[in-house]
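Suppose you are handed a protein chain with no further information: no name, no annotation, nothing but its sequence. What can you learn? This example shows the usual starting point.
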Amino acid sequence: MITTTEILTRAKAAAPSLLTASTAQKNQALEAMAAALLAQSEHILTENQKDMERARGHISDVMLDRLLLTKARIQAMAEGITAVAKLPDPVGRILKETVRSDGLIIQKRTVPMGVIAIIYESRPNVTSDAAALCIKSGNGCILRGGKEAFLSANAITEAMRDGLKTVGLNPDLVQLVQDTTRQSSMELMTANGYVDLLIPRGGAGLIRACVENATVNCIETGTGICHVYVDKAADLDMALNIINNAKTSRPSVCNAEEVCVVHSAVAEQFLPLLKARLVDERTTAGLTPVELRLDERAAQIIPGVHAGAQDFDTEFLDYILAVKVVDSVEEAIAHISAHTTHHSEAIITNNTATADFFTQCIDAAAVYVNASTRFTDGGEFGLGCEMGISTQKLHARGPMGLEELTTYKYIIQGNGHVR
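A reasonable first move is to predict its three-dimensional structure. Written in structure tokens, the prediction is:
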């Protein structure tokens, strides 16, 4: 088995080969990677079934759904890669140019980071998304997936490496760490001189471990305790539709709603409607009902589970929704601010002034007015796909696409200039 140290060495050696690659060459590589995924889809599905069999009984059903691959999902992964190929090249853009009075030309120009390492959990599609974004942005890519999805990720990586070979690029530009123990994660976190940027993509524990232990540059991503606030001026039918989508369309992802905050002026009317939509109607339809965890005021209006001390600070990633009643938009903002992970927050209201106040005061990467939090996604934002959702404020914030995987340098052109 190739060691993590060997992978780091190979990535550092391979990355410079992309510095002089043209946009056409990078796009050709992406098309070849997508074609290889489709050509090897049967093998990928076979390996995924092995992962599924090992994981069944050890992870929840919603997490199993994240792990599962189908022909349609592999097709979508390939389409995601080709979508990145069609995006503008982020490398070599002139961000700013200054011509001094003495004729010295100073340009601020985008360049690749170098080698990007991504530590992620049980979503095989992250493997192809991350590799595609790295290649297009001119970076080498080291992938470190979770043990539950290792065989799937390994098959996907091998296919993409085959694609790179067919167009004459070094396959070591895309590598998967073979060691799935914590030791390999620590090696990536402390790979100074080899890793230029580390991006964790997963649960709170993974992200916290990377932020606390990394000695390389690290971007904090992803934990999503996403709130939807139903204002007293909300269209209640709209609110029901948005919350139903934000909570139940795919509860295992970071942009799913975890907390519903309701203004007391509409709580008596709205909460029974919410229970009917998320609990009663889903039960009747044979779907998994949402477990409502209610604060004291909400529990006086509808039946449900009384919210515990941690329920407003938990990313459930499941069919569970915490519910709180407040008396004003200011109280809603105060509650969200106390419990936010700065990912995605939403307000449902027909009052423009209230919406503006909410968007100004809420500190999150994405703030929605009358829309589901489920749109916080690279594809939905026109980025092709994403490396993750950054919840910090330096360099990158929100869905991270191609631009966020570049840095810049100054290029100065003179004609014998001296100072």
